[in-house]
Amino acid sequence: MKSLLYAVGPLVFDSLGVIVFAVLLGLGASVVAATIAGTVAAVAVVGWEVVRARRPAPLQWISLAMVLFSAAATLLTGDPRFLMIKPTIVYLIVAAAMLRRGWMNRYIPPEQVAEVGDVMERFGFVWAAMMAATAVANLVVALAFTPWWPLFIGVFPLASKAGLFAVHFATVQYIRRARAQRRIGPLAPMLATE
């Protein structure tokens, strides 16, 4: 449970602005209200890191930029098509940022990096692929199934992230245990006789 909380906390915190925006939009809030609430949340996250004299993580900056960009574009253009296509661009930027090796290591305790850093690195690329797939799906829904877009953007991105997170977390925990068992396995008879 401690590992789960260690991983979920920063992930939710890093993406809080986008999460607030998507949830409110999915619940039927106006685009302006969802944008303002998401902007406040994203600014608060980055501000909290700055106040604590910590360097904001790349995903925190991306979340802030995404919400601020959508706020400005929505308020200036009033064009809903821009708002619907914008997540595609943002998801592609996030996917590109996720192609950096080792970016996921901040989501596990430092002492576990040596144990499962290789697994985290591979999952970093899986996350990048999922973000790219979400970008494509958003574009298709926005252009071909426009009436369904608010439901899609309110549900799919969060649900797909939650599903991948569950698979990722379970896989890392399983591999950690298996590797620990392999290390302890040969020593088990000696430990039992002591």
TrEMBL record:
Keywords: Cell membrane, Membrane, Transmembrane, Transmembrane helix
Keyword Hydrolase assigned: no
Bilayer-spanning residue ranges: 20-47, 59-78, 84-103, 124-145, 151-175
Superkingdom of the source species: Bacteria
Family matches, as Pfam families: IspA
Any single GO CC term annotated in Swiss-Prot or TrEMBL for this entry: plasma membrane
Protein name in UniProt: Intracellular septation protein A
Organism annotation: Sphingopyxis panaciterrulae
